[in-house]
Design a protein that fits this description.
This protein has 63 residues and is an alpha+beta fold. It is 21% helix and 22% strand. It has a three-stranded antiparallel sheet, with no helix packed on it. The radius of gyration is 12 Å and the shape is globular.
Length: 63
């Protein structure tokens, strides 16, 4: 697998696909390695856009 953000070959990539008020099913899939995924989620949290617990997105993992 290859991370679409850092372009490194990694054994695991992840993507947020569906959550309440968030649907990326029809968007071009972008998969991130765990490090890039964590940075992306942290950036959302810092920006104040993190979803409340009841709206936590489902994560799709490919191995």
């Amino acid at each position: 697998m290859r991370c679409d953000t850092c372009r490194q070959d990694v054994p695991l990539v992840m993507r947020v696909v569906v959550a309440k008020d968030y649907n990326r099913m029809l968007a071009r899939p972008l998969y991130n390695c765990p490090a890039c995924f964590s940075r992306k989620e942290e950036a959302k949290s810092v920006a104040g856009s993190r979803l409340p617990a009841e709206k936590t997105p489902r994560t799709h993992v490919k191995e």
